[in-house]
Amino acid sequence: MKRWVCQPCGWVYDPEVGDPDGGIEPGVAFEDIPDDWVCPVCGASKDDFEPEEA
């Protein structure tokens, strides 16, 4: 699965890890995260994330 990078702070959402503190279990694709989820580091919205370049 593709990893996504928060553009404001650089935090990486890795679907293999998820965001347990934010209620996102491991294995959840970024596309399947609720739209109201925010970056756990800086609070940026999902719209502020870009796919990680290979």
Q: Report helical residue fraction.
A: under 10%
- Give the beta-strand count: 3
Q: Overall mean pLDDT score? A: 97
| Stretches with pLDDT under 50, minimum 5 residues | none
Radius of gyration: 10 Å
Based on secondary structure, the structural category is: mainly beta
Instruction: Summarize the biggest pleated sheet.
Output: 3 strands, antiparallel
Strand order of the largest sheet: 2-1-3
Brief summary:
With about 55 residues, the protein is mainly β. It has strands at about 5, 10-15, 50. The protein is globular and about 25 Å long.
How would you describe this structure to a colleague?
This protein has no helices and 3 strands. The model has no long low-confidence stretch (mean pLDDT 97). 11% of the residues are buried. The radius of gyration is 10 Å and the shape is globular. The termini are close together. A hairpin with a 5-residue loop joins strand 1 and strand 2. By secondary structure, the protein is mainly beta.
Q: What topology does this entry show?
A:
Elements (H helix, E strand, L loop, with lengths): L3 E3 L5 E2 L35 E3 L3
Antiparallel strand pairs: 1-2, 1-3
Distinctive features:
0% helix; 54 residues; mainly beta
